[in-house]
Design goal:
- The protein is mainly alpha-helical.
- The protein has helices at 7-10, 13-31, 48-64, 69-88.
- Helix 2 (13-31) packs parallel to helix 4 (69-88).
Length: 97
Amino acid sequence: ARLNKKLEDVCTEESWQKTEKDWDDLAALFKLNGEGHEDLIMGDRLSYVDLQIVSVLVWARNCLGEDSDEWKRICRWSGGKWKKYVDSFSEYDVADD
């Protein structure tokens, strides 16, 4: 509403493609750790940045819906890296009572 546009006019195919490229660029940073050490941004050490990245992805999954075409599309980005990444944090998905 603030943009005076429909959501479909803001989230175009072009914007999806640019966003996918940006996530591919981020995935490339993980590869700088070397083969076998690509699970976390700093290799084998969990960092605040990892929590920020997974938070964005979990937010997207929750907003879009786990069964949505948009979430499934994100899960395919970077060879499926982001789906695996979110899944690796699944033990933290639910807060203890």
